[in-house]
Amino acid sequence: MNLEAFRGYSSHNLKNDMLSGIVVGIIAIPLGLGFAIASGTAPVAGLYTTIVAGLLISILGGSRFQIGGPTGAFVPVLLGIVLQFGYENLLIAGFMAGILLIIFGLCKVGSLIKFFPKSIIIGFQSGIAVIIFSGQIPNFLGLHNIEKHEYFHLNIKEIIGNTHLVGIYSIITALLCLLIILAVLRFFPKAGGLSYLIGILVSSLVSSLFFSNQIETIGSIYGEIPNQLPVPHFPEVTIEKILALLPSSFVIAILIGLQSLLTARVADEMTHLRHNSKKELIGQGIVNMVTPLFYGIPAAGEVARTVTNIKNGASSPIAGITHALFVLLVLLLLAPYASHVALASLAPVLMVVSWNISKKEQFASILKEKSGHTLVLMVTFLLTVFTNLTMGIGAGLCLSSLLFLKERMKDNGNQLKKAS
């Protein structure tokens, strides 16, 4: 834990930390459920991740303000792993990613984040936003039983081919939730993520009162959410599984590192403090080794929740700890009620989240440059959307390196001409 945060700590700081933690906890619940479902896992896995990872990230991380848990950046990668290898193997991949993160931290890889090309970061984040948004169209339209595919174009084809099965009541519920979210944000801008919970609660309540038998809920698709933490468990590991999952684990580790360090940097800019990148990576590694033991999915620091934490007056890791304990309390006391949440109500929440993480302004700005950065951006974006994140980031890095070498050779050639 960041002990520097407790110098001059007072009862007033404790009160602000606890209040901020409760606010962030309220926001984290619908996001945890939504990201877990979008990743192809059970909704409760998102709550387990929010509790276990959220608690440990605050205790072990290198930023006093970091709020961790399931994030949108992982959705396409985790869904791909679940579709290809299954949920049990996703837990192994997450554990392996934790080991890699500890190695990254010990090797001080965190200091290299400043050299990671902005065009690649914007490219894959925008690609992820497109995948999350499109992935929620079936829930928005009530197409809960259509087959999920690993590739974007196949999922779009599946949606188009099943438009005759669209459910009008799902659309009404989803539109109601979306309108409530937008209205709350319009008239109460400071509400932030609280608008998600309000939208889900009101739209789910309306659907249960007026057309309860005409719409799918979390309970009807996934069963009732248990009101307890699971007994720690780990699936059987073999050499074959390790070799098969290593590429996916490496991508997960890179994503966790990037997401967490970028979030910590945002927190630094807002508070004029500095995080410890080595401690952050090692902490994230331990977190992602422990979380799978409780059936949790990979987790990282998350920008929106961390920013909300700071804006609500947090000053220490106590806020993050409170957020995790609040979600645990909700799980223990109110889990059965979450089973009544309409799946159509979760779709607009993730659509709004994907819009917010799309980096549209930066994307447009790099496009206008019409430079090598533009090419890197588009290659990363298109390959992320139409193939996978591994291909997107890998191709982006290779192309960026080639363009850098070309520029250096050009500069050296110009210097030789001047010298002669």
Automatic annotation (TrEMBL):
Residues spanning the membrane: 21-38, 44-60, 67-85, 91-113, 120-146, 166-187, 194-212, 242-261, 313-334, 378-405
Keyword Transmembrane: yes
Keywords: Membrane, Transmembrane, Transmembrane helix
Ranges where the SLC26A/SulP transporter domain occurs: 14-380
Origin: domain of life: Bacteria
Subcellular location: Membrane
InterPro entries found in the cross-reference section: SLC26A/SulP_dom (IPR011547), SLC26A/SulP_fam (IPR001902)
Mode of membrane association: Multi-pass membrane protein
Pfam families xref list: Sulfate_transp
GO biological process, one term: transmembrane transport
GO cellular component, one term: membrane
Matching PANTHER family: SULFATE TRANSPORTER
Protein's recorded name: SulP family inorganic anion transporter
Record organism: Metabacillus arenae
